[in-house]
UniProtKB/TrEMBL annotation:
Domain 2Fe-2S ferredoxin-type: 1-96
Organism this protein belongs to: Nocardioides cavernae
UniProt GO MF annotations: iron-sulfur cluster binding
InterPro entries (UniProt xref): 2Fe-2S_ferredoxin-like_sf, 2Fe-2S_ferredoxin-type, ATPase_NBD, Beta-grasp_dom_sf, Corrinoid_activation_enz, Raco-like_middle, Raco-like_middle_sf, RACo_C
Protein name as catalogued: Uncharacterized 2Fe-2S/4Fe-4S cluster protein (DUF4445 family)
Length: 617
C-alpha cells in the first residue's frame, strides 16, 4: 500500500525460464521469493500462488488439501507442483516469512538455497528399548531430507555421537551426508568460487549461510610457462607426454594457493570449506581434471564431455574438508566453455525478455545473443591483439600500460593534443588492449586513420588534424603514430607508438568478433538497433571504453548507454552455483537451451569478415 493507504497495483514482471521447471523454482531463479519452509519439496503447503484460471492448470491432491473449491476455481495452486511448460500469468502473494537472499552478478537476486547445508541436532541416546541404529537416529531427526551416508561417515559416526553427548551437526551436500561434527558448527559453512582463467585465476571464499564473500584473491595461472593461450597449452600436451601431468599440477597448485590464501585472509579453517565451484573454459577445465585436451585443439573440436562429473576437491589438489566436492561448470562447446555458461548465469541471459548481446573479448572471443526467446552462441578467434600480443608496443594491463587515450586534433598552446591514462600513474611503457582500442577509435574519429585503417600521410594530417601531424613518424619501413615520447629528442623507435601493423591486427580481431555477432543477429532476423543491451564481459571487456568499442565497430552501432561493462561474470556465476541449487540447475539447463552456431562452416563467413574489416561510420 502507498503511504496514504491506497492500494498499489502489483509489480508486473515478465521472466523467462527453462521449460518444465516448477513455478516455485522459476520464481526463485528470478529472485522472486515465494513462501516455503520445505524448499519446494511439496510438503509444507506454503507456496501458494494464483495462476490465471484460463490456464486451466491441473489440480493435485496436495492442492485439494490446501485450498477450497472456490480458491481452486480462482486459480490457486501450490507453486512447487505446477510445471511451467508454457507462458503463465502467476500472482505471488506477499511473503509471510523473509527468505535470505544475496545480490550477485549483474543485479541478480539469488535466494539462498545452497547445496551445502548444516543441521544441528540433539539426539536421544540409544537404550535397550530404543535400539535404532546411529544412522537412523540421525536421519529420523532430519526427516525432510532423504539423506545418504557413505562409509567415510559411518567410520566416524558412532564415536562422534558418543563423544559429544549425541549433540552433533550433520554436514550435507545435496542430500549426501558427508560428515558429522561434534557440537553446533552450523555457523561455519564455507565454499570457494573459482574463476579459472587462462591468464588469471580468482578465488572467492563465501559464507553460504549468508551469501557474503569473506575473502577474494587472484593470481596468475601457474600454467603460464606452457604458453599464454589455450592453443599453446594444448600443443604442449601434444608434443610432450609429461606436459598434461605438469599442466594439471600447475592448475592444482594455483587453486591450492588461492584456497589457502582466502582461508587465511578470511580466518576460516580450510576444514570448514565443503564445496568449490570452478568456472573455466573447456581447456582449463580439462587440464584441471587431467583430461587430455588434444581433441579440443584440432578439428572437429570435440569435448570429452559437456558436463564434467563432480569430483572430490582433493582430486584437484585442494586441501579442504576431505569430502569437499568440486563442481565444474558445463561447456556448450570446445570454445564456449564453462566460464561463459557461468557468465550467462550471472547476467541472466536466459531469464530476460530483452534482446541482449554478451561478448567476452579475448584471444578467443565468446559471443551469446538472446532475443528473449532463443539463445545462440558462437566463438570467434580474435587473436592476441587485445591482450597486447602481436602489437609492437603491446603489453598486458599492468603498471605502465596506457589504457585510456583522448585526442584533441585542434589543440593549441599548452593544451595537450594527446591525453593518456596510464595504469599505476607511472611513466607509460606500452599499450594494453583497451588503450589500443581507444587509440584506433580516436584516430578514426579525427581522420588520422581512414575507413580502410590506413594512417594518413603527414601532408593529409596537417589538413585534418594539425595538432597531431608531428606525431606521425617512420619506424623502419612502417608508419607509426607516437603516443608517448620518453624524452623530447627520443627516436621514434624508443617511443610508445601505434604502428600501421598494429591497426591491421586490431582490424582482424574486431572483424572476427563483429562477424560473429552480425551473423548471430542475422540468424535471428535482427538489426543492430534491436539490441537493447550489450554486456562486455571478462577482464578486458570490462575496461573497454563503450564509445571506442562502438566507433571501431567492435559492438553494434548503439547509444553508449546500452553498452555495459559486466566485469568478472564467470566468478559471479560460480558464486551463484554455490549459493543456490536452482541456479546450478539453471546452468545445466543452458546446455539444452543454447544453440551453438559454428561460424567457420558458413559459406558467407569470408564475405561477412571482409565487410567487417573497415572502420566505416
Ligand atoms: Fe513447500 Fe511447495 S514449497 S509445498
Amino acid at each position: 500500500r502507498a503511504e496514504d493507504g491506497a492500494e498499489l497495483p502489483p509489480a508486473e514482471r515478465g521472466v523467462r525460464v527453462p521449460p518444465g521447471v516448477t513455478v516455485f523454482d522459476a520464481a526463485s531463479w528470478n529472485g522472486i521469493a515465494i513462501d516455503s519452509t520445505c524448499g519446494g519439496h511439496g510438503t509444507c503447503h506454503k507456496c501458494k500462488v494464483r495462476i490465471s484460471p484460463q490456464a486451466d492448470v491441473p489440480v493435485t491432491r496436495h492442492d485439494r488439501r490446501t485450498f477450497t473449491d472456490a480458491q481452486l476455481g480462482d486459480g490457486w495452486r501450490l507453486g512447487c507442483l505446477v510445471n511451467a511448460t508454457r507462458d503463465l500469468a502467476v500472482e505471488v502473494p506477499p511473503l509471510t516469512t523473509r527468505p535470505k537472499a544475496a545480490t550477485v552478478g549483474i543485479g541478480r537476486q539469488v535466494i539462498l538455497r545452497p547445496a551445502l547445508q548444516k543441521r544441528y541436532v540433539e539426539l536421544a541416546e540409544a537404550t535397550l528399548s530404543d535400539q535404532r541404529t546411529d544412522l537412523v537416529r540421525l536421519t529420523d531427526a532430519i526427516d525432510d531430507l532423504e539423506l545418504k551416508a557413505d562409509v567415510h561417515v559411518l567410520r566416524r559416526l558412532s564415536s562422534v555421537l558418543r563423544q559429544s553427548d549425541f549433540k552433533v551437526t550433520a554436514v550435507i551436500v545435496d542430500e549426501d551426508l558427508i560428515d558429522v561434527e561434534p557440537g553446533d558448527t552450523t555457523g561455519a559453512r564455507y565454499a570457494i568460487a573459482f574463476d579459472l582463467g587462462t591468464t588469471t585465476v580468482v578465488g572467492t571464499l563465501l559464507d553460504v549461510g549468508t551469501g557474503t564473500p569473506v575473502a577474494v584473491t587472484s593470481m596468475l595461472n601457474a600454467q603460464q610457462p606452457f604458453g599464454g593461450d589455450v592453443i599453446t597449452r594444448i600443443s604442449a600436451t601434444m608434443m610432450d607426454d609429461q606436459a598434461l601431468g605438469r599442466l594439471q599440477q600447475a592448475a592444482a597448485a594455483t587453486l591450492a594457493q588461492l584456497a589457502a590464501q582466502v582461508c587465511r585472509e578470511g580466518g576460516v579453517d580450510p576444514q570448514h570449506v565443503y564445496e568449490v565451484a570452478v568456472a573455466g573454459n573447456a581447456t582449463m577445465t580439462a587440464l584441471a581434471l587431467g583430461i587430455d585436451p588434444e581433441p579440443l585443439g584440432v578439428a572437429p573440436f570435440v569435448m570429452s564431455a559437456a558436463q564434467p562429473p563432480s569430483v572430490l576437491a582433493s582430486e584437484i589438489g585442494l586441501s579442504l574438508h576431505p569430502r569437499a566436492r568440486a563442481f565444474f561448470f558445463p561447456a556448450l562447446g570446445a570454445y564456449v566453455g564453462g566460464d561463459i555458461v557461468a557468465g550467462m548465469l550471472a547476467t541472466g541471459m536466459d531469464r530476460d525478455k530483452r534482446t541482449r548481446l554478451f561478448i567476452d573479448v579475448g584471444t578467443n572471443c565468446e559471443i551469446v545473443l538472446s532475443d528473449g526467446e532463443k539463445i545462440l552462441s558462437t566463438a570467434a578467434p580474435a587473436g592476441p591483439a587485445f591482450e597486447g600480443g602481436a602489437i609492437r608496443c603491446g603489453m598486458r594491463a599492468a603498471d605502465g600500460a596506457i589504457e585510456v587515450i583522448k585526442v584533441d586534433a585542434t589543440a593549441s598552446g599548452d593544451a595537450p593534443a594527446v591525453t593518456l591514462g596510464v595504469i599505476g600513474d607511472v611513466e607509460p611503457k606500452g599499450l594494453c588492449g583497451s588503450g589500443l582500442v581507444d587509440a584506433v577509435a580516436e584516430l578514426v574519429r579525427v581522420g588520422m586513420l581512414d575507413a580502410t585503417g590506413r594512417l594518413v600521410t603527414e601532408e593529409a594530417a596537417k589538413e585534418v588534424a594539425p595538432a597531431l601531424a608531428d606525431r606521425l613518424a617512420m619506424v623502419g619501413e612502417e608508419r607509426v603514430f607516437v603516443l608517448h615520447r620518453p624524452t623530447p629528442d627520443a627516436e621514434p623507435a624508443e617511443c610508445v607508438y601505434l604502428s600501421q601493423r598494429d591497426v591491421r591486427e586490431l582490424q582482424f580481431a574486431k572483424a572476427a568478433i563483429s562477424t560473429g555477432w552480425s551473423l548471430l543477429l542475422e540468424e535471428l532476423g535482427l538489426e543492430h538497433r534491436d539490441v537493447q543491451q550489450v554486456l562486455l564481459a571478462g577482464s578486458f571487456g570490462s575496461y573497454l571504453s563503450p564509445a571506442s568499442a562502438v566507433r571501431i565497430g567492435l559492438v553494434p552501432k548503439l547509444p553508449v548507454l546500452r553498452i555495459v561493462a559486466a566485469g568478472n561474470v564467470a566468478g559471479e556465476g560460480a558464486k551463484m552455483a554455490l549459493l543456490s541449487v536452482r541456479e546450478r540447475a539453471g546452468a545445466l539447463a543452458l546446455l539444452e537451451e543454447v544453440t551453438y552456431v559454428e561460424l567457420s562452416d558458413r559459406p558467407d563467413f569470408n564475405e561477412a569478415f571482409v565487410d567487417q574489416l573497415s572502420f566505416k561510420a
